[in-house]
Predict the structure.
Amino acid sequence: MNRDQIFESILAKKSYLCIGLDTDLKKIPAHLLAEPDPIFAFNKAIIEATHDLCVAYKPNMAFYEAQGVRGWQALEKTIAFLNALETPVFTIADAKRGDIGNTSALYAEAFFENLNFDAVTVAPYMGADSVVPFLGFPEKWVILLGLTSNSGAQDFQLPNAFYRTVIEKAQNWANPDALMFVIGATRPAFFREIRALAPEYFFLVPGVGAQGGDLQSISAHGMNAHCGLIVNSSREILYASDGLDFAQKAREKALVLQQQMALILKEKFSI
Amino acid sequence: MNRDQIFESILAKKSYLCIGLDTDLKKIPAHLLAEPDPIFAFNKAIIEATHDLCVAYKPNMAFYEAQGVRGWQALEKTIAFLNALETPVFTIADAKRGDIGNTSALYAEAFFENLNFDAVTVAPYMGADSVVPFLGFPEKWVILLGLTSNSGAQDFQLPNAFYRTVIEKAQNWANPDALMFVIGATRPAFFREIRALAPEYFFLVPGVGAQGGDLQSISAHGMNAHCGLIVNSSREILYASDGLDFAQKAREKALVLQQQMALILKEKFSI
């Protein structure tokens, strides 16, 4: 999926919502545990109930790896199901990988070629040769950690504005057609300056919902002429109910966010 | 495995060698491809041929994830085989993970509880709450990226000696009984100052062999009173031959390194 297609999808769906498929066997409705593949059964129901309201899905690899082989099987079925949707959605492997060059190349193979995700999140600490192997796949994306939503961002990212060093340097490696940045929703005060630092790049924004980020503020300061924001919510949507109505309740939560986004998009782009 | 046990194992085996199980279907001997599980067949033969010469094994997750479900199955069989060896070896999941707290906790569950590795490599960018969930498992270890062996270390780690900031701060999170650092063998000039910065911590040292690191120099500047070094070699050992004799040739390569290490240990510890 290229940048124009992402923006077209945002305008068509009046949404820049990403739903994080952080599927946890301890939190999904108990009745699903009788299914042959409870993780996939949950994901499928969530996707069927929400895919007209969001432009992206983001399974976090940790939730699948914690289940070993059956987790990986559920992941394979989930990405295949996403890629078979009639209206394409943008798919993000939230993996936060990064290793020496020949090893990053294998992760790229795993996520882009074998699983056929559109994007993978990558950690910057190991520098250019850990990131570059993920680039150069047509219409595939690196989403590099910039300023994250968690408290630990205070340890290395915020001192001396190190996140700025990362966001500046990474722009030498890839243009806005192949690279996005993760910018946490819990830090709305930073969106204006980070948008100025990387005007054309998309930001993947986790932390709305359970982590407390504010959609209005982020959108006011973070949007660019092609929207430039994909805002993720995971737990608040997935676990809106643990009963038989979980998918319907997830849809209702997603709908609230989508309707807020529709208003913001209407004001910004007159749609 | 605790710190005393690691040091005892080093003295008993006269070795501080770690063998990186970076098992690549494109590089293993062709005759193994007829096996039901070529990756595990290769790993098992390598481990059987070398386990008296090394104190640790380090499968890099990328090589297994690139094979999807069958890769994960091979990984499970490999770690089970390692954990069943008569003489215990230290096992490292080279994963370079790191995510927000609740997600890092799931990675810890995956590697420490489900797979039963002794240690996992972790990337520092997301700070304390991305690392701390890996701590507090008895006799399990975090191995945090410090100064890596790849060229990309020049992008963020070396400018303003940022690796020092990471190594200093991380010592507030865990003592030398639960935390090690990755320090690349390709940077021997840094070993003296990093050892002074973290006198008691073990360093996992990749980059000897194919990447060009120098064992003598690293050992002279990096050892402490409990050895404090675990030196990894992967490709040079694994792919010493692609014939029927691959395991024997791997043993010969490992033996060269072990004999060099035995001399260094003899001089340092009079064993």
About this structure: The beta strands of chain A are 17-21, 56-59, 90-97, 119-122, 141-147, 179-183, 202-205, 229-233. Chain A has twelve helices and eight strands.
